[in-house]
Amino acid sequence: MALKKTKGIRLDMLLIISLIIGIGIGAAVGAGMTPQGLMTIYSDGVYSTGDDWVSAFFSYFIGSAAFVTAAFLMGFCAVSQPFELALVAFKGMGLGVLARSIYSCDNILIRIALFIPFAVLSSGILIMQSFDSVAMSTRYLMLSVTAENRLGIAHEFRDYIFRFMIYLTACAAVSAVNCLMLRLFDYLGMI
Known about the structure:
With 191 residues, the protein is mostly helical. It has six helices and two strands; from the N terminus they run ββαααααα. A two-stranded antiparallel ribbon has the order 1-2. α1 (11-31) packs across α4 and α3 packs antiparallel against α6 (153-187). The radius of gyration is 19 Å and the shape is elongated. It starts with a strand and ends with a helix. The relative contact order is 0.17.
């Protein structure tokens, strides 16, 4: 798929910038929170103790798949492009608060090793889905203002759904790997 341009800036770069801005805002918000509040956010959001690895998997999976699904659904709206950027920034805000909360916990390096790969991979999946969603949304917008033949969109629609399923599968794989890392670190007594 060719990269779309948005006012001289590549769309993928615009989405990455939106994520980075969101991370900055989230870290700034986290700076105003108490250390106990930040530790609670980290414990609830990233690290859960106990032997319930299935619920930990679903927690990670739902956390990443919900954003990917929201981006997918926005692709069916002809004017959702700005909301896609806002969705990526909102994900970044959550990551910023979580990153800030790591510094209020013990074993910072271990917690960073658990947080960074999952955050980067899940954000990458969201950015790829958002890229596809903006392209589909723009396609719907163009179809609504032109007399172009609409029969060709059926193939694009099928491909769009297929890529969404791949992104959901990637979310599940990333969540499973993160749970395995969590279990390994817990087994080794590192957390």
